[in-house]
């Protein structure tokens, strides 16, 4: 992983926008090449910041991951991408720095040096989990009453797209999605898992 300390940001809750600074030329070029049409600017205390819609910002983060940059939150001085956590809506699903276990409504993520787990509840009898037999930690299984309904392999790339595939496959379960989680929630849970692995396994 590269360590360039490049990025500061915070979430503007009211407009569902992300306001941020990019201090690395390579990331700045990546941002402008792929998101130039969506970019806007705002001045805060005399400094000029970028703004992006949350969905586009997530895509930028995915691209940063794929290029080997690390993403962290408030207080993480070693991150390439730095999000100011204190400005984020408390209801948003995001990694809490330093934790090796995190849970929310219908989901759990945990990481140690040898293994990790990601569980997302779909309904009372079904849910997604990492395949415990896959040492590469790339295979997600949709289980329903002890039976496997689907399997997806996760690679670096568009996390939102992968999360949407997972969510759409919930219809294969007996009762479908009943937990109330959205495809965006699934994507954020996956990001928690990635951030946790990057932090715990440094």
Question: SSE layout and pairings?
Answer:
Blueprint: E1 7-12, E2 17-22, H1 25-35, E3 40-44, E4 47-53, H2 54-66, E5 71-73, E6 81-83, E7 101-104, E8 107-111, E9 116-121, E10 126-130, E11 139-144, E12 147-153, H3 159-168, H4 183-200
Parallel strand pairs: 5-6
Antiparallel strand pairs: 1-2, 2-4, 3-4, 7-8, 8-9, 9-10, 10-11, 11-12
Helix pairs in contact: 1-2, 3-4
Major sheet strand order: 7-8-9-10-11-12
Query: Could you say which structural class the secondary elements and strand pairing correspond to?
Result: alpha+beta
User: H/E series, N to C?
Assistant: EEHEEHEEEEEEEEHH
> Helical element count?
4
What average pLDDT do the residues reach? 79
Low-pLDDT sequence parts: 1-15, 84-91
Fraction in beta strands: 25-35%
Radius of gyration: 17 Å
Helical percentage: 25-40%
The separation of the N and C termini measures: 10 Å
Shape, per Cα inertia axes: globular
Largest sheet: 6 strands, antiparallel
Summarize the structure.
With about 200 residues, the protein is an alpha+beta fold. The protein is built from four helices and twelve strands; from the N terminus they run ββαββαββββββββαα. The strands form three sheets. A six-stranded antiparallel sheet has the order 7-8-9-10-11-12, with helices on one face. A four-stranded antiparallel sheet has the order 1-2-4-3. It has a two-stranded parallel ribbon with strand order 5-6.
């Amino acid at each position: 992983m590269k360590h360039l300390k490049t990025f500061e940001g915070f979430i503007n809750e009211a407009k569902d926008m992300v306001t941020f600074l990019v201090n690395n030329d390579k990331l700045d070029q990546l941002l402008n090449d792929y998101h130039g049409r969506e970019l806007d600017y705002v001045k805060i205390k005399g400094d000029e910041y970028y703004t992006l819609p949350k969905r586009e910002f997530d895509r930028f983060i995915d691209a940063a991951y794929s290029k080997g940059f690390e993403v962290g939150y408030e207080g993480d001085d070693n991150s390439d991408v730095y999000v100011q956590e204190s400005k984020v809506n408390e209801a948003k699903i995001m990694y809490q720095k330093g934790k090796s276990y995190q849970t929310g409504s219908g989901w759990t993520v945990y990481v140690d040096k040898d293994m990790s787990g990601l569980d997302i509840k779909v309904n009372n009898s079904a849910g997604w989990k990492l395949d415990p037999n896959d040492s590469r930690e790339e295979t997600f299984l949709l289980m329903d009453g002890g039976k496997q309904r689907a399997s997806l392999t996760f690679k670096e790339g568009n996390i939102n797209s992968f999360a949407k595939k997972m969510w759409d496959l919930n219809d294969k379960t007996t009762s479908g999605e009943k937990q109330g989680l959205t495809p965006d929630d699934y994507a954020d849970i996956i990001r928690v898992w990635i951030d946790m692995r990057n932090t715990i396994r440094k």
